[in-house]
Amino acid sequence: MILGHQKQWQFLVKSAKLGKLPHALLFYGQEKIGKKALAIEFAKFFIGRTSPPDFILVEPIGKEIQISQIREIINKFSFKPYLADFKLAVIDNAHLMTLEAQNCFLKFLEEPKTQTFLILVSAYPSLLLPTIISRVQKIRFYQTKESKIEEPEKLISISKSDLAARFQYAKDISKENLEEILDTWLRYFRKVFLERVANRQKNSQYSLSKLKDIIRQIQTTKHLISTTNTNPRLALELLLMEL
Fold first, then answer.
1. Out of 58, 161, 180, 230, which could bridge 91 as a Cys pair, Cβ 3.0 to 4.6 Å?
2. What is residue 112's three-state secondary structure?
């Protein structure tokens, strides 16, 4: 399910169908408005899968994206697609590439491989080398009414329900944009955690220890769903059992 950004989505789909998709794209705009989520949804549409070896998702290790991660993309792109017709890599928070990593990436951009496509995602494109910016097609994302995320009121009620209701909820949302849903849950429980630490939410149903466990479980579930072939519904069921 795509939340907002219909013009961007239509451009990507039309370009792909006409065989005119740019080799390298930059999705840019403010944080937390669905850029990464749309990139992953497009990967599902374009190559039919979001798991290795034809799809690569690169995210910062700690606070940076290292040159070794860029070299890994280059290495994987040196082989022909395995199951899909193309290979596609999404580099989230691309502006966090080290200077060394950016220079390595630039050389890769200058000699693109056939059957490969790249999507950079960044809220701070000015931190990328101008030579990288000049070699990618930029697609700007804006805050939209559809992309605004409200507090997960449904999740709060489900957390007080029995297992049958939780499993049904997992089934209902397993086909939706889970990346964005899990991001919303993370923001909510982090907010509750911080309020508990500051002693502003004394009546929370969760202890600090329980909140830490929930946040850790959401992060693990998000990682499994985005990088492996884990059954989304099963992963959600396990997560909801923790609430």
1. 58
2. coil
